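User: For documentation purposes, I need each entry recorded in a consistent format: the amino acid sequence on its own, followed directly by the corresponding structure tokens. There are two entries in this batch. Please keep commentary to a minimum and don't merge the entries.

Assistant: Recorded as requested. Entry 1:
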Amino acid sequence: MELQGRIADQQACEELQLLAADQQPGTSSVARDSTACRNTRRLAGLVLRVVLGLGVVLLCGAFTWSACGALSGSSSSSSSSNKGSGGSLELPAEPRELPAVVLKHHDHSLENHTQPKRNSRRGSFLVIGDWGFDPAVHGNVPSVTCQQAIADRMREKMEELGDVKFVINVGDSFYPDGVSSKSDPQWENKWRKIYSKKVRSVPWYSVYGNHDYHHDPCACSEDPTHCAQVNANVSNLDYFVMPDVSYYLPHPELDMEIVGLDLNTYVLAWKRAIKNHELEDCQYSPCPAQCKQNAHKRTLQAFDLFHTRRKESTAKNLLVFSHYPTDYFGTAPHFMEGLRDASKRIVYFGGHRHDVDQSTTAPIHPNVNWLVGGGGGWSCDGGNQGFVVGEISESFEVHTYSVLVSKDTCCAWR
């Protein structure tokens, strides 16, 4: 497509002049200045070879910038510049790469858009409880189908969110009697084979439920390192992450602190007449008296830990959980008052009752709490089986909502 001869050059020059005049009316002096036109013939040939096929607007913008930049100001400055240079512009000896052109009008099609963060979130988490179904001993959930359906929905939700940081597990993880060691086959059969590798790719922050104590060495030992579910290695995701039976873990990137509490002496607190609480399930352990003593001591330590973290934590959000819902703590007013602390943003999760809701628990306004015991492992105490999702916004606000499976899958009889 190279232009040849004086006539062809003149025609190309005239065409470019007309395009410049049409596209940028304020530079009509370019079209009238024949001297400038002659001096741009070589550049026109280069431009046509390099950028042929580009839009007329882009071509003229580049041409005007390089060849007529001295004339693009006021008429008087343009005339003065031409006189000082003898009416000629010095062209480069070799073709050079054209600079990026910034169009004066806003063309969105030329922008390189940056994809925003996922709904402006810092991250998210899932919450579940009461899920370790056993085919031989169970309540009115007839098969593992319910637990599996919830596990599958967790995987789908995790893939959808794309930024899940951890799972909160409020206990009763292995019905009916817990695990006896870290080599217990129930880890494989009731957890790893049910919940996908994706769902287990993040820490499962956990606490003991009443059933978890039955055959666990934790019932008879005061040393938490003897407990089958305790795992202080946060990098070891082959098991739950549970540094102690009660513990706290900071998540500064979420402006959040995780506080897990062992409050298993409150297992019968739904009976309002009971004032002195003890872990009834210790009867299933090999050491009932020692088990009750350990559970009582751990409850006191849990309450102390909660109040300490509530007062000393600098995190904007406290995510607190135990195995029991807030309506079980009528005889622990100090705990309920702490959960209602308006100076902290507290989100509390408890299980034990086998449903997922916010309507059957005792309110902790202005803070938030959930019942999350509908993991499909034992029974349907209500029609809602599933889990809860928490999303943390850019401003570190925590938004929670439930994700439920079909009632027919778990509780068709209701």
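Entry 2:
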Amino acid sequence: GSSISDKSMEMLSATCKSSLEELDIGFCASVSDKGLGYLVSKVGRQLSKIHVWGCAQITEDFLDGHDRLDEGGLEIVGVWMKNGGGRSLR
């Protein structure tokens, strides 16, 4: 299994907060909405893309509630979202 976790998100936000531009946490089942939200809230605006393929644990709690939601400029790639009662790829 993956050793990437919420603790990893804390470490990245502490050590790469001004340089992290893109993040791929695909298939990292130990990263939660809370951990990813923490990272997004702490890193700079240069973070422009997060890949979350295979991360079914990342939910609308993160996608509709992270700190940069209203600002735009952050693309979340590879997540299934509810869309009119169905599911759609975002």
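Summary note for entry 2:
Residues 6-15 form the longest helix (10 residues).
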